[in-house]
Amino acid sequence: MLDQELKAFVITQIEDMKAKEITIIDVSGTSDVTDTMIICTGNSKRHVRSIAEQTALAAKRAGDAPIGVEGLEGSEWVLVDLGNVVLHVMQDETRQFYDLETLWGHTA
């Protein structure tokens, strides 16, 4: 998928899984690793894990298998690396603590 298609695909997946507080950050000018970070919040460890696993599985079925998935064990923060799009699924407390939006210079 093209970058825009992949971004839209991920957003659709996480919206379908009832993720909250979805934030999209363009990091193409500041990161050599990815172009877009998508951050969302899950209600519980189980919800965080489900969002990440289902998004990774759907991407694989669509022909864009993730490069990696990290954090499933604890499921407080799960990262799904899809190359030009990286998805961060976090529990609310973890998201507030790490505050990736501020770290990456994103303002609402």
Summarize this structure briefly.
Helices cover 39% and strands 27% of the residues. The chain has 108 residues and is of the alpha+beta class. Strand 4 and strand 5 form a beta hairpin.
Question: Would you mind describing this structure in some detail?
Answer:
The structure is a single chain. The chain has about 110 residues and is α+β, with helices and mostly antiparallel strands. The chain has helices spanning about 5-15, 45-60, 90-100, 100-105; strands at about 20-25, 35-40, 70, 75-80, 85-90. The protein has a 5-stranded mixed beta sheet. The mean pLDDT is about 95.
Instruction: Name the structural class.
Output: alpha+beta
Alpha-carbon distance between the termini?
28 Å
**In what order do the strands lie side by side in the largest sheet?**
1-2-5-4-3
Which radius of gyration do the C-alpha atoms yield?
13 Å
Residue share in helix: 25-40%
Amount of beta strand: 25-35%
- Largest sheet report: 5 strands, mixed
Parts with pLDDT < 50 across at least 5 consecutive residues: none
Number of strands: 5
The H/E string reads: HEEHEEEHH
